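Record 1 of the preview.
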Amino acid sequence: MLGGLLQTTLHVLYPPQCLTCDAAVEADYGLCGRCWRDASFVAGAICDTCGTPLLGEADDTPLQCDDCLKIARPWSRGRAALVYRGTGKKLVLALKHGDRHDIVRPAAQWMARIAAPLMKPDTVFVPVPSHLLRLAKRRYNQSALLAKALGQELNTEWAPEALIRAKRTPSLDGQSRDARFETLSNAIRPHPRFGSLLAGRPVVIVDDVMTSGATLAATTEAAFSAGAKEVCAVVLARVAKDA
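->
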């Protein structure tokens, strides 16, 4: 009773606001009508490998986008909750650069819906790792926050230390596709002590956004080096050309 009264008092003093703007909403961690309409949730026909939306109706036939037909992806299946534009882009940038940890909870709920069909017995969620110097500067790894919350949503283990970013890499923003893959070559490796947590197990790599797929590819290869049985990928948002 006391907890409910405290929650009511807090809502009177600090009314719930939209995750991406100052508009009032009915409950915490929600989007206002305008931002919801501007959020391109991925649905319908999608690429089975990277989760990008495709033209046409959804059916049981696995489809692939043009990028995944041209580029060999080391992971088997991939999903994205949102297209990286509008509200989706605002959420990713606020989480990554704005210290907006309140975005993690609803993001994990959206990601849980698309991650659940990929899961198998003994699946473990593994975040894309950050280099120690970047982690010290930012104070958190947004991918690890998402992986932890996703594990809680689906009651599944997560392994935040199974992989490490052994090489400090520059920002990938503005780099070409080939340059991104070259930059991340050998940058991510199994942890000397904790990498064995992935041995013989299905792994789901978790990240905030997929652009070229270079980061997910490097992380997947590291997971296989640690002995992962199978690797899938789930991201909050996917950069999509024709979305």
